[in-house]
């Protein structure tokens, strides 16, 4: 009798355990479904928020044959850091161009100094960062296409003021500050440290106290953007995705579509681990009269040799015909930017009476 009673009680307990387990699993499943549904809806909203204007055809890029990321085509993207404040439309303080070649499995990245002297369509000679202020993303892309002599397929614009939101959304970033400095009442010590959004903005803006000037600032801006992206994509940020999405939606604009971003994630993620940084070489800054300023201002420009070499290296990386007639769609050997002897005349090279800048 006792044995039968024990078996009956055990059977009832097992049924209760199964019911409880089933209930817990059901609650977890419902919670996960709700979480990922909200995640998907939030993602869709962000994709709508960040959609920028499409790029128009230019002489350098007629855009007659669109890039197909699902086919793993090579492409170029302009990364634009724009300092948009309440009192003005903003100038592009950070300009990086990346060419991506999945067949070669690498990315070539070049930073263009904001004081680079170029010809801007309908505006004449000016600093390259003025193109965005004159004509928004359309003129900025056109100017950089003409300067580098390559098509720009995509762009991603980041509002530098929005760095506060972006950095705070990922709970701060770790940076390695080379120089102690104070800017607009914000002090940042030398060394490795975790900084919040307010400090990150000043860290990315500081220029005059850096011995490397604008070049030093460009490196810090790249560091901040890279750290935000790395931390935003980490698994630890999933629980904070709503704040991240809100910050991205308010401060990022791109012409990548939702499906293209998905193709980018699926087909190009491994390529991003192999980034080669290219550098333009030129003489020291010098004084040059720019009508829009109404006075002489310090500008910078690369040498003909350096610019031509960089142009051809990027053209080869995009499988395009180069300015000297070369075509390369498979080889992983590109033109070496430091040893090229080509001295083609370039429309962006300025020949004018100038005053050399002597820091002494």
Task: Supply the key terms.
360 residues, alpha+beta, Aminopeptidase, 2 domains, 15 strands, disordered C terminus, Transcription regulator, transmembrane helix, transmembrane
Using the coordinates above, name the CATH class of the largest domain.
Answer: Alpha Beta
CATH architecture of the largest domain: 3-Layer(aba) Sandwich
The number of strands is 15
Distance between the ends: 106 Å
In spatial order, strands of the major sheet run: 11-6-1-2-3-12
InterPro entries: LytR/CpsA/Psr_CW_biosynth, LytR_CpsA_psr
Family: Belongs to the LytR/CpsA/Psr (LCP) family.
Transmembrane segments: 20-41
Domain Cell envelope-related transcriptional attenuator: 91-231
Provide structural commentary:
The chain has 360 residues and is of the alpha+beta class. It folds into 2 domains: 50 residues; 288 residues, LCP protein (Aminopeptidase, 3-Layer(aba) Sandwich), CATH 3.40.630. Helices cover 39% and strands 21% of the residues. The protein has 8 helices and 15 strands. The strands form 5 sheets. Strands 11-6-1-2-3-12 form a 6-stranded mixed sheet, with helices on both faces. A hairpin with a 4-residue loop joins strand 2 and strand 3. The longest helix is centred in the first third of the chain and has 49 residues. The C terminus is likely disordered.
Could you give a short description of this structure?
The protein is α+β, with helices and mostly antiparallel strands. Helices cover 39% and strands 21% of the residues.
Secondary structure blueprint with pairings:
Elements: H1 2-50, E1 75-83, E2 91-101, E3 106-111, E4 117-120, E5 124-127, H2 130-148, E6 154-159, H3 163-169, E7 173-177, E8 181-183, E9 186-188, E10 191-195, H4 197-205, H5 214-233, H6 241-251, E11 252-254, H7 258-268, E12 275-278, E13 286-290, E14 295-299, H8 304-317, E15 355-356
Parallel strand pairs: 1-6, 3-12
Antiparallel strand pairs: 1-2, 2-3, 4-5, 6-11, 7-10, 8-9, 13-14, 13-15
Helix pairs in contact: 1-6, 3-4, 3-6, 4-5
Keywords: Membrane, Transmembrane, Transmembrane helix
InterPro entries: LytR/CpsA/Psr_CW_biosynth, LytR_CpsA_psr
Protein name: Transcription regulator
């Amino acid at each position: 009798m006792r044995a039968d009673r024990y078996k009956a009680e055990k059977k009832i307990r097992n049924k209760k355990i199964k019911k409880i387990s089933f209930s817990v699993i059901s609650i977890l499943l419902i919670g996960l479904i709700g979480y990922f549904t909200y995640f998907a809806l939030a993602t869709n909203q962000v994709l709508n928020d960040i959609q920028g204007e499409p790029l128009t055809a230019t002489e350098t890029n007629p855009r007659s044959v669109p890039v197909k990321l699902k086919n793993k085509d090579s492409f170029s993207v302009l990364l634009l850091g724009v300092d948009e404040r309440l009192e003005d439309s903003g100038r592009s303080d950070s300009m990086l161009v990346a060419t991506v070649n999945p067949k070669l499995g690498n990315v070539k990245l070049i930073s263009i100094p904001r004081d680079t002297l170029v010809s801007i369509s309908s505006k004449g000679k000016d600093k390259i960062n003025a193109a965005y202020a004159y004509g928004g993303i359309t003129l900025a892309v056109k100017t950089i296409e003409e300067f580098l002599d390559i098509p720009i397929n995509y762009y991603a614009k980041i509002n530098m003021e929005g760095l506060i939101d972006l950095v705070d959304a990922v709970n701060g970033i770790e940076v390695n500050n080379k120089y102690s400095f104070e800017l607009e009442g914000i002090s940042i010590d030398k060394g490795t440290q975790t900084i919040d959004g307010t400090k990150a903005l000043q860290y990315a803006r500081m220029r005059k106290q850096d011995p490397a000037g604008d070049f030093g600032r460009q490196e810090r801006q790249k560091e901040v953007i890279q750290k935000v992206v790395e931390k935003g994509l980490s698994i630890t940020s999933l629980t904070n995705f709503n704040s991240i999405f809100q910050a991205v939606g308010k401060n990022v604009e791109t012409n990548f579509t939702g499906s293209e971003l998905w193709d980018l994630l699926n087909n190009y993620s491994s390529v991003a681990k192999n980034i080669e940084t290219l550098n333009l070489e030129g003489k020291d800054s010098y004084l040059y009269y720019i009508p829009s300023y109404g006075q002489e201002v310090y500008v910078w420009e690369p040498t003909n040799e350096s610019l031509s070499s960089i142009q051809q290296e990027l053209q080869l990386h995009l499988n395009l015909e180069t300015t000297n007639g070369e075509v390369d769609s498979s080889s992983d050997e590109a033109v070496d930017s430091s040893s090229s002897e080509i001295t083609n005349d370039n429309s962006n090279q300025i020949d004018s009476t100038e005053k050399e800048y002597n820091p002494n």
